[in-house]
Amino acid sequence: MAGKAVMHAVQYDSYGGGVAGLKHVEVPVPTPNKDEVLLKVEAASINPIDWKLQKGILRPFLPRKFPFIPASDVAGEIIGLGSEVKNFKVGDKVVAVLSGGGLAEFAVAKESLTVARPQEVSAAEGAGIPCAGLSAHQALTQSLGVKLDGSGRQKNILITAASGAVGLYAVQLAKLGNTHVTATCGARNIELVRSLGADEVLDYKTPDGAALKSPSGRKYDAVINCVTGVPWSTFEPNLGTTGKVIDLNPSPSVLLTFAWKKLTFSKKQLVPFSMSPKGENLDFLVKLVKEGKLKTVIDSKHSLSKAEDAWAKSISGRATGKIIVEP
Question: Chain centroid to CA 121: how far?
């Protein structure tokens, strides 16, 4: 089947172009390599990195070649197996991280980055997890040392842009640990963020919200910063003696501040963050969703034929939670 059949996909042919650069095409169904599975895509999610790659943020390294089918987070059903795949069979429902290719009817995924999706987790809920959920999980557990079993001393944590995809997962995961969570978001999302566990929620447009001041006067042990453009001078007075800012969107100025803090042996640190997808972490998060301990908040769903609407919504920066595309 894989060598002859064609599928509907959305791709772009060059850097730039935004929504207008997306093209609907009929292309061959991909063939899995020996360590890959072939998926019938049931849902994909759009992340900001998808349109930032199109803009050329990692030019000339990514995308590796054009034309390029974007989106890396998918859920679907396995319909084909590479010769060395051991842990899955045709018919299995899964969640996977791709290196692109998600905005299509079919996609291939590495077995090592594919995990089982229980029936309690919908395709849309599963597809929302990988990039955003793994970023939140690794920032908390690896960068900050938060133990999600609730052990260890309590940490005061600030999460900025808490109504975005990463922020919503970060609030929920942080509260599985021994943390006091202060969160910032727009006024319309305050109740949502509070309902997911945040102890304090600030409207970022108010003076205290812009200054990132804890309503209870706490100093933060750590900040998970999901926004751009906040200077170190805003974070610094709100940090505890050894406070860390984990920056999920590191800019050149962030990298300079990171280097300067290292050179001066500052106890307060600004740390650039980069997520590295791991199958075991993804499996852990999918199981949390199954158990009702983690929720994928879905902003909107779009058909593959209207993928441009999903792309535009993500670029707008006004999504609350995950933007899902369904073939």
Answer: 17
